[in-house]
Design goal:
Bound molecules: dinuclear copper ion
Radius of gyration: 28 Å
Helix content: 25-40%
Order of helices and strands: HHHHEEEEEEEEEEHHHEEHH
CATH topology of the largest domain: Immunoglobulin-like
Number of strands: 12
Largest sheet: 5 strands, mixed
Strand order of the largest sheet: 3-2-1-5-8
Length: 350
């Protein structure tokens, strides 16, 4: 029988091999550093300041961690004579009290200063004013005119012009939500009976994704939206188009879809018109999103599905499966042809 030895098995460890193993780990955080929903890819002044502050806090935290680990290693592995010196009163007072107090106080002052600058309280007279209301589980968006009255109403998608200050009045219709577009600004709570103001600016055109950042019950995680930053010219054209009533159906198929949508004998507790508005038609429900130009949006169901006839039909027929507990019942009353007609009509509302 071979004798069993207790010698460790030696695995040759080449530089190349360690690089091969470690390199993929180093790449892991990279996908999170850019993208349409990332605090690490700031696209506005407020988001830039937040990102710089986060990196400084991370760097200081990392420095403190490494220093403490170095002391721990020294205490464990240095000769007893040397490690005993670490118990000196002077080292404990300086390293254990003085240094943390100075470093953390500096961070606190820096953090408060930056936060103060981000939450600027001065009103910008030239700012575009938009009111956003958090609802379970979608976003009502109202563009306000000079007198503060809603001029255009839409849902689940916010358009803003680049390089212009934008002032968002954030409200809630039911419970606490939180408005967050990571690429442009920090999150701000939407509190029932209270208005919070968020000022932001986009530096370049782009489509960014936002998300409700406060648990608001049921499908909270499925309460998202898109923010489209565009040139002032494109923005003005968009706003003008949104202010117009809905397009008339161009074909008999779309006409059939509109008739079904407007029907008040749908055989359900609620018909489409009880909850949705389509300006220019008798549909004037206020419970759910305004659908006057629903076909022009990037997504449906509050940022969770791409917008096309297929997803619209799927959403109408089985919204409770796609977004459980949302306020819209699944409409299983339509035949396949009827469902396609309603979905095609909504998709045509550009
Ligand atoms: Cu709304 Cu979470």
């Amino acid at each position: 029988m071979m004798p069993v030895t207790s010698r460790p098995i030696f695995i040759p460890w080449s530089k190349q091999r360690s690089v091969r193993l470690v390199a993929p780990l180093a790449l892991l955080p990279l996908p999170a550093c850019s993208g349409i929903q990332s605090v690490l890819d700031p696209q506005g002044p407020s988001a830039h300041q937040t990102a710089v502050m986060s990196w400084i806090m991370f760097a200081e935290g990392a420095l403190i961690f490494l220093t403490v680990m170095a002391f721990v290693a020294y205490a464990m592995f240095a000769s007893p004579n040397r490690s005993a010196k670490m118990g000196r009163r002077q080292l404990i007072v300086e390293g254990g009290i003085l240094v943390p107090v100075v470093m953390l106080s500096a961070l606190l002052v820096y953090g408060l200063t930056v936060t103060d600058a981000i939450v600027a309280t001065t009103e910008e007279p030239s700012a575009l004013r938009i009111e956003i209301v958090g609802e379970q589980w979608w976003w009502r968006v109202r563009y306000l005119d000079g007198a503060g009255k809603p001029s255009v109403v839409t849902a689940n998608e916010v358009h803003i012009p680049i390089a212009q200050p934008v002032e968002l009045s954030l409200r809630s219709a039911d419970v606490i939500h939180s408005f967050w577009v990571p690429n442009l600004a920090g999150k701000v709570d939407m509190i029932p009976g209270h208005v919070n103001t968020l000022r932001l600016k986009a530096e370049r055109p782009g489509v960014f994704r936002g998300q409700c950042a406060e648990y608001c019950g049921g499908p909270h995680a499925l309460m998202a939206f898109y923010l489209v930053a565009q040139s002032p010219k494109e923005f003005n054209a968009w706003l003008a188009a949104q202010s117009r009533p809905a397009k008339e159906p161009r074909t008999s198929f779309l006409e059939r879809g509109r008739t079904l949508f407007l029907s008040t004998e749908c055989g359900k507790d609620h018909c489409c018109v009880d909850c949705h508005t389509i300006r220019g038609t008798p549909a004037g429900g206020q419970e759910g999103p305004d659908l006057t130009h629903v076909g022009s949006r990037h997504s449906i169901a509050a940022g969770i599905l791409p917008n096309n006839i297929g997803t619209l039909a799927g959403w109408i027929a089985d919204s409770q499966h796609i977004k459980p507990e949302n306020r819209m019942p699944s409409f299983d009353i339509y035949s396949g042809a009827e469902l396609r007609a309603v979905a095609a009509y909504l998709e045509s509302l550009k």
